[in-house]
Amino acid sequence: MENLLLCISVGLTLSFAFINGFHDGGNVIATAVCSRSISPHKALFLASISEFVGPLVLGTAVAHTMAANIFNLELLEKLPSVHLFTMIIAAISGATIWNLLTWFLSLPSSSSHALIGGLIGAGLVAMGRFGIAAESIIKGVLAPLLVAPLIGGLVGIFVFSAIRALFAKAHRGVRHLFETLQKPCIIVLAGGHASNDAQKAMGIIALLLAGGSGELRGELHIPLWVVISCAAALALGLSTGGWRMVKTVGYNICRMEPVHSFASQFTAMSVIGMASVLGGPVSTTQVVASSVMGVGASRRLGTVRWSEARNIAYAWFLTVPASAFAGAVMLVLLSRIVEGKWGLLHPLAD
Fold it and tell me: By CB neighbour count within 10 A (0-12 exposed, 13-18 middle, 19+ buried), where does 172 fall?
């Protein structure tokens, strides 16, 4: 039973990375494709290669952070392996349910926040409120959830205003410059998205492999096969297209020309890069979508379809509580299948 649950939990984590690829990955090519700066197939090719290479060359720091900052590791070590595997299965299932629902509704929510929400919900049921590292979650999830869209929007306004001032008298042919500049932007954005999100899946698998070994509070070892498989799952997911999210971000928020798309991509690349340097985790989905809103608003407020922006904002704020609820419900159901009486009555739950 223990080995079967371990295989299922690792398989589900890789499946979630695949879903993340076509759910969130489409954001990095959305504006470039919809502004006709690059063909969809070329954009997918560039982004998929970058999504695979990014996690291999940019280290595993986020994976260690992910593994160490959601749960109280002292209580987590006390969980028997079967309970740990079941908890992770429930958490990933809850996050997957929310991701597939928002994908069906074409709402670009954050897969990272869905994953963290699922872990919070399942962790609360398994270990009680002291099993969750509340302070780390507030600093690492809730604060960026509120701040990242605001920064993305404001920087988008600033960047497009600066471009408009610099190129106000430029020949119309300057659009070719902005079309060309978006290719390296796609590579950098996709690599940054993959290195961040693939490492979250790596962190979960590292927790699973260390479960029951008494090594959860040390430096978790992340085998090379974990790094490669998570990177491949994310790249494969993106290679399937993610066209629902591409359409929402690239078409439905506001009409994009190459210069607007470049301004949005440059903004997202700058904000995400600065956050990485400062160690602040941000959602690529939120930064890209808010930068599109900022660029659109700097042209004219009426160019932004605010009803679409409002629906996206609702999805952002609902992601963590909804996926936490789904993760908690899944654990209650699974615990009765796996071990009968285990669930809300687990001795670690207060």
Answer: exposed
Which pLDDT value is given to residue 348? 46
Q: What are 226's two structure tokens? A: 């974990």
Burial class (CB in 10 A: 0-12, 13-18, 19+), 283: buried
Coil, helix or strand at residue 71: strand
Determine which of 5-14, 67-76, 183-192, 285-294 has the lowest per-residue pLDDT on average.
Answer: 67-76
Q: How many helices (H) and strands (E) does the chain have?
A: 15, 0
Of 284, 329, 327, which is closest to residue 95 (Cα–Cα)? 327
The Cα 340–Cα 139 span in angstroms is 36
Q: Which of 111-125, 199-213, 299-313, 333-347 has the lowest mean pLDDT?
A: 333-347
Specify the DSSP class assigned to residue 132: B
Residue 102 is encoded by which pair of tokens? 């928002």
Mean pLDDT of 37-60: 82
The pTM score is 0.84
